[in-house]
Amino acid sequence: MNRILAADIGGTKTKIAICCMLDGSIEAYRDYDTDSQLGGPAVIKKLIAHLSEYEGYDAIAISTAGQVNVDEGYIIYANENIPQYTGMRLRDILEEAFHVPVRVENDVNAAALGEANYGAGKGTEHFICLTYGTGIGGAIVIDREIYRGASGSAAEFGHILTHPLEEVQQGNSMPYYESYASTSALVSFAQQVNPNWNSGKIIYELWEQGEEEIGPIVERWTDEVASGLASLVHIFNPSLIVLGGGIMERKAIIEIIVRKTKRLVMSSFSQVQIVPAMLGNRAGLLGASSMYLSK
């Protein structure tokens, strides 16, 4: 198989393209509003309508938010961002609609596969991948394959406990890594100072301009990012960590995170490379499609 019709279903946008497996190129790219608040059935009905506009492909590949049973192609669990999505048998629905093979993968795992085959992880056998956005997603690549764990949901890095449980009892944030190190957490920190600082882009630009009150906020957030990464380095001893998400496209931010992480890890682990993802919004599309490589 060479030409794969791929879709990347996110909480805000869904992206579609035809991916060519030979060279990792994409054609006929488009995106549209997912309208996730309407619930899983509506999301998939809209997806089918958009996929129906394509032709000339060998199979379909789906990257999607939520925990995925890859063998059977259904959603094990999805949070309130897409109501009524848990249990959705996506592969069966799409195979019935289009009469071609369908594969389904979790979005962060798909992004990691994309980076493994076409991006920052190309040529690396073992690495971990994290994406920083509303939460923190994770993926573990071992021998160029996704490690899935006992129930298929490994690498929930965003739910590592990084703060004392007492903080929950005192009514503060949940003690998870993503509560302090996601882009949403960065924005939350900033809005405690100025409610208008409501996006990572705005915060970065103000920081770059030398806004006095932003500096300590970025320092606190990068400390949180680095502390979680240091724990993962000590657990997995990876040669490479790939960081995705819009904020991680900023070279200056990556440099700070690398410096802080390496200060926290044992010297025998300091050879780890920490790099930004390369594929941007193509990662999930190419990664889902790459599930057909060597099949």
Describe it.
The structure is a single chain. By secondary structure, the protein is an alpha/beta fold. The protein is built from 10 helices and 12 strands. The chain has a 5-stranded mixed sheet, with helices on both faces. Strand 2 (13-20) and strand 3 (25-33) form a beta hairpin. This is ROK family protein. InterPro entries: ATPase_NBD (IPR043129), ROK (IPR000600). It holds the Pfam family ROK.
- Biggest β-sheet, characterized? 5 strands, mixed
Low-confidence sequence ranges: none
End-to-end separation: 8 Å
> Would you report the number of β strands?
12
Strand content: 15-25%
Protein structure class: alpha/beta
Average residue-wise pLDDT = 93
Helical run tally = 10
N-to-C series of helices and strands = EEEHEEEHEHEEEHHHHHEHEH
Radius of gyration: 19 Å
In percent, how helical is the residue content?
Answer: 25-40%
**Shape verdict:** globular
Strand order of the largest sheet: 3-2-1-4-7
What is the compact description of this entry?
The chain has helices spanning 40-51, 90-98, 107-118, 166-169, 177-181, 183-191, 200-208, 214-236, 251-264, 283-289, and strands at 3-9, 13-20, 25-33, 59-64, 67-69, 74-77, 102-106, 127-132, 136-142, 145-146, 240-244, 273-276. By secondary structure, it is of the alpha/beta class. Strands 3-2-1-4-7 form a five-stranded mixed β-sheet, sandwiched between helices. A five-stranded mixed β-sheet has the order 10-9-8-11-12. A two-stranded antiparallel ribbon has the order 5-6.
Secondary-structure blueprint of this entry?
Blueprint: E1 3-9, E2 13-20, E3 25-33, H1 40-51, E4 59-64, E5 67-69, E6 74-77, H2 90-98, E7 102-106, H3 107-118, E8 127-132, E9 136-142, E10 145-146, H4 166-169, H5 177-181, H6 183-191, H7 200-208, H8 214-236, E11 240-244, H9 251-264, E12 273-276, H10 283-289
Parallel strand pairs: 1-4, 4-7, 8-11, 11-12
Antiparallel strand pairs: 1-2, 2-3, 5-6, 8-9, 9-10
